[in-house]
Amino acid sequence: MAIKRATTPGFRDARYRGLISKLVSRRHELQLTQQALAEVLGLHKQFVSRYELGERRLDVVEFVDVASALGMEPSTLISTVPPSKHR
User: How many domains does the chain have?
Assistant: First the structure.
């Protein structure tokens, strides 16, 4: 029996973009530049720029690191994500 894999819209998924939007808004609230956030994370500015523009997707560990660096509770953010309508 073949296993049917669910496909997701990836970067275009409104739920994912909503999470990223919250991270970007928080960065702006803190008046941090992309460079300043990158320095806190120990990464290059391009890392922040690319996930904010949707050119790369954050994995779960990166998401936790970014949210924490912005003083946000990652689990609280994730709890706001509605389940997929594809179930």
Answer: 1
